[in-house]
Design brief:
Layout (H helix, E strand, L loop, with lengths): L13 H24 L8 E5 L5 H14 L4 E5 L8 H6 L6 E5 L5 H4 L2 H19 L6 E5 L1 H6 L5 H9 L6 E5 L5 H6 L2 E4 L20
Parallel strand pairs: 1-5, 1-6, 2-3, 2-4, 4-5
């Protein structure tokens, strides 16, 4: 565009530009209010955080913190990361009346190098998860890294999906881990795929306190 050719916006005063923007905002608000007025259902959700990007468990822990803020009781089963010490676990353990954490895993598969033991640990964790899922005192259950054990077929995905879809209507369940099974994605209400754009590990930076743990 030459200096002599101006768009219609260029010829408007700042006041006119502001008024046009405000009118668009008013119309967007009206549309949103109509949409929100039509959405009235409340029920427990099945939430899946997956993908190669960082932040799946972190986002889930954020939901747990929201529940704690509302005085809602949460159960957490960690299927894999049991061998790791995590700062978030230390924080949540300060709320024993509202947060019940069961550390069931023995570490990542490349650490244990014992498939039979990993399967037994996964089965034991799943039994604990099913007990929590049937307990009416919980408002949310976080099944951390369940996707990992499903990926390696340590648990039958059909059974897991069957149990999750039969949960009570007001219970929220959050599942984390890479490579979520299609069967789980199909029955979930909310699925987020964390996409990795950059990661410092590839530049030789080790896991950082306050970032990874």
């Amino acid at each position: 565009m030459s200096s002599e050719t101006k768009s219609p916006v260029d010829t408007l005063s700042e006041e006119a530009i502001n008024e046009r923007a405000n009118e668009k905002a008013r119309r967007r608000k009206e549309v949103r209010q109509k949409m929100l007025a039509s959405i009235t259902e409340e029920r427990g959700l099945l939430v899946v955080h997956t993908g190669k990007g960082k932040g799946k468990t972190t986002a889930a822990i954020g939901m747990v913190c929201r529940c704690v803020g509302h005085g809602m009781k949460v159960g957490i089963v960690q299927f894999v990361k049991g061998a790791w010490t995590s700062a978030e676990r230390a924080v949540l353990e300060k709320f024993p009346d509202l947060v019940d954490i069961r550390v069931m895993g023995e570490g990542f598969t490349w650490d244990t190098q014992d498939r039979a033991r990993d399967i037994k640990a996964a089965q034991k964790a799943w039994e604990t998860a099913k007990t929590m899922l049937s307990d009416p005192t919980y408002s949310m259950i976080l099944l951390d890294e369940l996707n990992i054990v499903l990926r390696y077929d340590y648990l039958p995905v059909d059974e897991v999906v069957s149990v999750l879809t039969a949960k009570r209507p007001d219970l929220h369940v959050v599942i984390t881990g890479r490579n979520a099974k299609p069967e789980l994605i199909d029955v979930a209400d909310l699925v987020t795929d964390m996409t990795m754009v950059k990661h410092p590990f590839r530049d030789g930076v080790k896991a950082q306190k306050g970032i990874e743990f």
